[in-house]
Amino acid sequence: MKIRRVLFISNNRTFGGSEVLWLTVARELLERNYRLAFYVFRWPNYPEHFHDVFIDKRVTIYYRYKPGFFRSIFNRFISRFYDPAPKWVSFEPDYALISLGSHVKTLGQIAHCSRFKVPYSIIFQLVSELSHETNISYVTEVLSSRAAYFASDQNRKLLQRQIAADIPQAKIIYNAAQVSVDLPFSWPASNVSVSFAVVSRLDSYHKGLDILFEVLARPTWKQRNIQVNLYGVGGSRAYLELLCSYFKLSNVFFKGYVADVTTIWSQNCALVLPSRQEGMSLALIEAMLCGRVCITTHVGGAKELITHGVEGFVAEAATPDLLDQALEEAWQNQHRWKEIGYAAYEKVRKVISRRPEEIVLEDVIHFFERAN
After folding, report:
1. pLDDT tens-digit series, residues 167-178
2. pTM: predicted TM-score of the whole model, two decimal places
3. How large a percentage of the chain has pLDDT more than 90?
4. What is the largest CA-CA distance in the chain?
5. Which of 214, 248, 318, 325 has the most CB atoms around it within 10 Å of its CB?
6. 194-351: which CATH number, 3.40.50.2300, 3.40.50.300, 1.20.1270.220, 3.40.50.2000?
7. Under a CB-based contact definition with an 8 Å cutoff, are residues 124 and 149 in contact?
8. What does DSSP assign to residue 48?
9. In this structure, which topology does domain 5-176+355-371 adopt according to CATH?
């Protein structure tokens, strides 16, 4: 039997929840003796439990790089006359799975798959309102995909509006949570201060962390006995530390990347996610699976999981005043937090009826079965 060769392309420059899904699929394919290639950036960190995938001899890794300012200008100019083949062409893939994070403008990788006649599917982790002009230019590539996976139904509808076309092969799949659906409900031990966790990449604009800091600097919140723990890494850390100093926030702590999600939620009772844009936050799903109160913004699929005041609290937009309003409502309902956490725990288990990697894996296997 011919060796089956699958290419995985990721456009994320740091490891995050977006990578967990396709890496889990990759591991399953290795168990079925597929040959794989990864076209990825050199991440500064990735969880130890994926180390076996990266060192497997059946995996070929092609590293991408972010060009500097002058190289970017040169590349843009030269691409008008010459479009070099990507590194992965020598792998000769039979199929490609393309995972797009927050930078949808890199849909150019899809054009390469079309050029070299490689069938492909796309995982849209985030469709942004800011990507309208970029997305419409790739309508043919999107509609030519074997499957188009979206992190939320809101993101599917948004992209269809942007390209002015239905996507009949669209599927909604939530990201692969690193928390078992069989985890029993529990509540953290009482502490003197209320601990909020922010679990996200340290990207100030995308994740709205500057908005949160502005709210925490308001007199009402400064006088409250709370602690805000940031779990994650990213390029905005230096700016966020400067902003903490500017707002004189002594109760905000940078905890770095923590692989074990249950450790985070054994020490915190509420998630704050003030994002300006999302697909479907993996941190939100995992916090709900752990039975925690979530305060988030009305972006992406937040309202597909949370009814305001029932399973959590949703600010209608990512602005300081509206986030403050949602946080205040959550604060005034502290006596209900355990009840709300349990409602979140129950709701997310009903919505996530099947693990997303199973859906993607099944589609890949069916592609090869049909090809034979």
Report:
1. 999 999 987 787
2. 0.82
3. 62
4. 69
5. 318
6. 3.40.50.2000
7. yes
8. G
9. Rossmann fold (3.40.50)
